[in-house]
Amino acid sequence: MNIRFSKISLLCAGLLAITTLGSHAADHAAKATDQHGSHGAKHWSYSGEGAPANWGNLEPGFSLCRLGKQQSPVDIQGQGSGKPAPIEFAYTASSAEVVNNGHTVQINLPSAGGFRLDGTEFKLAQFHFHTPSEEKIRGVAYPMVAHLVHKSAAGNLAVVAVLFELGDENQALKELFAKLPANGQTAHLSNAFNVSDLLPAYKGYYKFMGSLTTPPCTENVQWQILKQRVEISKEQLEAFRKLYKMNARPVQPLNQRKVEES
């Protein structure tokens, strides 16, 4: 009888452990969904309670959005001080995964090359869009901007911003904008994507230190804003705005930062 009782006890303990593990897994999945879904109480957005003005109060990890002194985007006024070195772009064609993450459309590129500046190489990780442009030039915002996000071997971040103005259809974005996925969905481009095709002919730029423009608003991000705009058609812009009518953070104080201009 004692042996049977021991076996039954072990069986019950095993079932209890499985039930407990299952409960923890469900809780973890629920939390992950809340973090990335649209119904979390502390979910950041571009309007309502989660609007940019409130980002710094939503979570302790977002405090830089409120307290940081090197926040982006900024309004670039007048002539910059200093002259930065030319950017050595070296992008390559890569497969492309297009993800609608609930805040923008992001294109993940596993092997797209990058650029070299001041002796440091930065590898492109992804690019995404904001409308209107988050950056302003002498008070003017443009219809859209692409942020090309890079990372160095040391883990430092650098963003290249490409501004768009209305004009002819952008051929580099033709397939991408024909496959813009719905919120939470993913698409893959049939053809390899080379970010070089997205850049303007003239590579002059503004350079300054800033932050990510979305929570957690991490600072010490090196920004390069290309001065020459590229064109995008009205139809392409409208296709993006059907998904995101507005997803731009307002400009932040420049404080004591210097803007260099090439």
What are the key terms here?
single chain; about 260 residues; alpha+beta; Carbonic Anhydrase II; 12-stranded mixed sheet; 3-stranded mixed sheet; 5 helices; disordered N terminus
Question: Can you walk through the features of this model?
Answer:
By secondary structure, this protein is an alpha+beta fold. It folds into two domains: 1-36; 51-261, Roll (Carbonic Anhydrase II). It is 21% helix and 29% strand. It contains five helices and 15 strands. The strands form two sheets. Strands 2, 3, 4, 5, 6, 9, 10, 11, 12, 13, 14 and 15 form a twelve-stranded mixed sheet that branches. The chain has a three-stranded mixed sheet with strand order 1-7-8, with no helix packed on it. The longest helix has 35 residues, at 2-36.
Quick recap of the structure?
With 262 residues, the protein is of the alpha+beta class. It has 5 helices and 15 strands.
